[in-house]
Amino acid sequence: MAETDNNFVPEETSVTDAAEGQPASENGGKKRKDKKPKEKFSVRLKRNRKKILISLVAVLTLGVVLAVILVPTHFVTLNEPGDFISIPVVSLPLDTSVTVEKSGSYIAHPDSVWVDDGTDQGKIIVMYPLGHGKGELAMRVSSDMGLTWSDRVSGLPESFKDSQETPTLYNLHFTDGSEKLVMISGCPYWVATKYKADGFNFSFSDDGGETWSEFEKFHSPADAIVAMSSLTQLKENGEFVDKWMGLFHDHSFDVYKTVLSFDENGDAEWSEPELLMPSYADITRKYGMCEVEIIREPESDTLILLARTEKRISRSLISFSYDEGATWTEPKELPYELSGDRHKAEFDPVSGKVLISFRQMIPVKRSAVSIYNRISGGWYAWVGKFDDLMSYADDDASNDKKGEYLIELGRTDYFAKPYNAVIDNGYSGVVCVDGTFNVVGYGSFDKVGTTSYIISRTFTLADIEKLL
Questions:
Q1: pLDDT for 227-255, tens place per residue?
Q2: What is the DSSP letter of 199?
Q3: Neighbours of 161 (CB within 10 A)
Q4: Which of 139, 107, 141 is nearest to 124 (CA)?
Q5: Helix, strand, coil: what percent of the chain each, to 5?
Q6: CATH number of this structure's domain 77-465, picked from the four choices 2.120.10.10, 2.60.40.1180, 3.40.50.880, 3.40.50.10860
Q7: What is the DSSP letter of 162?
Q8: Contact 260, 180 (CB under 8 A)
Q9: Measured distance CA(315)–CA(332) in Å, rounded
Q10: Does residue 9 have a pLDDT over 50?
Q11: Which of 191, 274, 313, 334 is deepest in the core (most CB within 10 A)?
């Protein structure tokens, strides 16, 4: 038997429409409706132009109404960083700074260290990545406390070409009188890159920074961000020992400590990372505590902790340890005068004061209609005494002190460039030698906002206080 097609209608039984000469549909011979020819866009536009005009007028009217409401609201409720500062601010004009390097490409996140090389002023070494955190490391040297800088130093280790985080520099002073420079570069997870969480890299120099060792990896696969944000020499029985407590954080804002020591062969050993303050881990995560700095109060040996709060729901935090970092007090908020990111603190024995460099970050909206909960005037330094910081160690808020004054090291102009450029500054190295400070920071400090700068400033607090 021949195969049949259920959809096939034999020609002799087909029904046609005599008028149109078209086959009828299969549903009982009922005629199918003709498709209307597609209407041209220009015709539809002409036919609906009244509706379109009405819609456009409505949208424009709504835009005008919103502008009339929102623009005045923005300016009436506008917040400036100075609105929250109650101590004097000394502004240092940009033309008084020294340019270490400038580039049309992104350069940032410097750190510096001072070395006694036998000369009158010693030398300052600065390192910074040629990129945002990750990138090849550049190094420059100053032999006059930051007034002039060398070209980029050549001959650095090959592994420095693939640094995965901002470098941190420290000069370790051993109990036998010897010194060792160390540089640490974290290896955190980076979104949309090949980098996975991989601990941190470590390099050292035994000749004052003339040569450096190739990177050595420690504690993979820890997610180490800004390692080591601080590196503090520890004491045992009231005396310094050859151990240093280093801190880093991860993407969950858990802050970890690991202790650096050296074996009999001089090889570095880092203890297993552990939570810095396990009793307050919920607080560190809630506020996004990170980039922790520690400075020792010399009279009581209290370790004072200062921390960035990335969640921007609080000001920066302060905490205290009376047992060499074994335990810490519950973190408390600092005043607006010290609210910011990447605090770097140094004590000046000449004036008896503390200088803390930081990127200003005040957790308030720019205005009532802003989507960001942060404002900043740029890169600043806080100046005060240990007593000012220790005033936060008790529960009596009425005794809390705000410090003596702020130094505006590098202003960034909110109205000159996109908002994200404004908050991208600071992260400085800080050294103090016989009362002379040098700070090296970064930012897009020109009005156009397209050039990246690494700048240096050298001053004494006596010079600054003449400007008050």
A1: 999 999 999 999 999 999 999 999 999 99
A2: B
A3: 11
A4: 141
A5: 20, 35, 45
A6: 2.120.10.10
A7: G
A8: no
A9: 9
A10: no
A11: 334
How deeply is 50 buried, as exposed, middle or buried, from its count of CB atoms within 10 A (0-12, 13-18, 19+)?
exposed
CA–CA separation, 209 and 111 (whole Å): 14
Q: Write out pLDDT tens, residues 258-295.
A: 999 999 999 999 999 999 999 999 999 999 999 999 99
- Across 340-468, the runs of DSSP E, i.e. the strands, are 340-348, 353-360, 378-384, 405-411, 425-433, 436-443, 452-460
Contact 419, 372 (CB under 8 A): yes
- 115-150 tens-digit pLDDT: 999 999 999 999 999 998 889 999 999 999 999 999
How many residues are given for the chain? Answer: 468
Cβ atoms within 10 Å, residue 390: 18
Report the alpha-carbon distance of residue 202 to residue 453 in Å, rounded: 26
DSSP secondary structure string, 17-80?
Answer: -TTT--BPPTTTTPPPPPPPPPPPHHHHHHHTHHHHHHHHHHHHHHHHHHHHHHHHHHHHT---
Cβ–Cβ contacts within 10 Å for residue 344, how many?
Answer: 26
User: For the residues of 285-345, what is the DSSP string, one character each?
Assistant: HHHTEEEEEEEEETTTTEEEEEEEETTSSS--EEEEESSTTSS-PPPEEPPGGG-EEEEEE
Residue labelled with tokens 């592994």: 159
For residues 331 and 344, give the distance between their C-alpha atoms in angstroms, rounded to a whole number: 18
Residue 413 is predicted with a pLDDT of: 60
Please tell me the pTM assigned to this model: 0.86
Q: How many CB atoms lie within 10 A of CB 88?
A: 14
Greatest Cα-to-Cα distance within the chain, rounded to the nearest angstrom? 115
Q: Angle at CA 192, nearest 5°, toward 191 and 197?
A: 45
Question: With contact defined as beta carbons under 8 Å apart, do 233 and 261 qualify?
Answer: no
Tokens of 423: 């908050």
Please give the structure tokens belonging to residue 183.
């540089």
* Phi-psi map region of 105: left, alpha, beta (phi>0 left; psi -120 to 50 alpha): beta
171: confidence class by pLDDT, cuts 50, 70, 90: very high
Q: Best-predicted range by mean pLDDT among 27-41, 67-81, 86-100, 442-456?
A: 86-100
Interatomic CA distance for residues 276 and 284, integer angstroms:
10
Distance separating alpha carbons of residues 130 and 369, to the nearest angstrom: 36
Domain boundaries, the chain: 41-75, 77-465
Closest to 410 (Cα-Cα) out of 129, 126, 108, 166: 108
